[in-house]
Amino acid sequence: MKRKLVLFVMLAFLLLTTVSIVFAGNLYVHLSFDGIDDYVEVASDLSLNVGDEDFTIEMWFKILKADMAGELSYVFSWYTLENAEVYVQVYRYPIFPDPAYHSRIRIGLCDFDWDLAYIDYNNGNTDPWADPYFDDEWHHLCVTVNSTHGVLYLDRVVMTIDSEGTPLVGNLDTNTSVYIGGNFYEGFNFTGSLDEIRLYTRQISTAEISYSFTNKEPQNETNLVLWLRMDEGTGDTVYDETANNNDGTLMPNYPSNTPTWVDETPPPPTPPAPKPKHKPSAEGPLPPWVDPRNLSAVFLFALLLVYAYSQKTKF
After folding, report:
1. How many domains does the chain have?
2. Could you list the residue range(s) of the whole structural domain that residue 130 is in?
3. Mode of pairing for the β-strands spanning 164-165 and 157-162
4. How does DSSP classify residue 71?
5. Residue 148: inside a domain
6. CB 178, CB 77: distance < 8 Å
7. What CATH number should be reported for the domain holding residue 215?
C-alpha cells in the first residue's frame, strides 16, 4: 500500500511540473513592429469601455537601439467619445535642449491640440540611450490610474507617481478600435517588440504586478477585459484570452505588411557525449588482473581459491 502511495505522489508531482512548464507565460513568441505602418487593431466592444472608473494597462516591450527613431511612438491607444485619445507612448528627442525630453515613457489623455493630462517617466539623462529601457532587452510596463493620480511601474518598480493637468479620468469610453503599436490617426507607429498586452477596468495591486513580472501572466483575472498573449506564432489574429473575445487583427495588410511573428524559443540542450567506460593506458593494454573491467572476475576467482584452500586444509 505504501509503495502505491509513493508512486502516486511521484506521478502527480511530475504531471504538475509538466503542466506548469507548458502553460507558464513566456516571451519567446511575440510580435515585432517595424515603426512604419505595423499595428494590431482590436475592434470596439462595450467590454473595453473603462468609463470614468480606474483602469490598468500592462505589457512587455523590447526596444532596439538601432531601430528607435528620434520621435514618439504609440504603444497602446484608443479614441474616446469625448474627442480625446488615451495613449501609452515611448519616445526620445536626443537633439531637444531639455534633457527631460530626450527619452520618456508617457501615458496620457490628449485632444487634437495638446495633452490634457499625462504621467511621465524619464531619468533626465543627457544620453537618451542611458535610459534603462533602451537596451534591446524585455521590460515589463504597468500603469495604474484612478481619479486622482496614476502610477507607472517599470520592471515592477515604481518609477513615477504623477498627475499633470486635469486628472486622467472622465468618460474614457470609445466607439472606435483599440490600437496596439499605432494610433487612431495612423502615424507614429512603434518600433520594437510587444507581448502579453492586458487591459483591466480596475487598479491592480503591487503584489499582482510583482507576480505578473515574475510569471509573465496575471495573478488575478478580475475585471481583466483584454489579454493578448501573442503566442500564436502565425496567422493574422492574436486571440483574447478573456471571455470577451476581443481578438486583435494584424494590420494593415496581412501577410505582406503587418507586424512580424518572432519565435525565439531556445533549442533543446545538446545531450553530453557519453563518457568512456575506461581510460586506456598510455603504455598499452592493462594486465588482465589489473584491468578494472576484470576486477569482479578476479575477486570471484580469489574467493574460489580461498575456499578450495580451506577445504584442502581440512584433510
Report:
1. 1
2. 25-263
3. unpaired
4. S
5. yes
6. yes
7. 2.60.120.200
> How far apart are the C-alpha atoms of 263 and 254, rounded to whole Å?
18
Name the strand (E) or helix (H) holding 3: helix 2-23
- Output the CA torsion sign for 57, 63, 67, 69: positive
Sign of the torsion formed by the C-alpha atoms of 153, 154, 158 and 163: negative
* 163, part of any domain: yes
Q: Whole-prediction pTM value?
A: 0.74
Report whether 110 contacts 219 (CB < 8 A).
no
Residue 13 belongs to some domain of the structure: no
Grid coordinates representing 198?
A: 492586458
List per-residue pLDDT tens for the chain, 315 residues long. 544 443 443 434 333 433 333 334 578 999 999 888 999 999 999 999 988 788 999 999 998 765 555 567 889 988 887 777 887 877 665 555 555 555 667 777 776 555 556 666 665 555 544 566 777 889 999 999 887 778 888 899 888 766 555 555 567 888 889 999 988 776 788 888 999 999 999 999 999 999 999 999 999 999 999 999 999 999 999 999 999 999 999 999 888 889 999 998 888 888 777 776 655 555 555 555 555 555 566 566 666 776 776 776 554
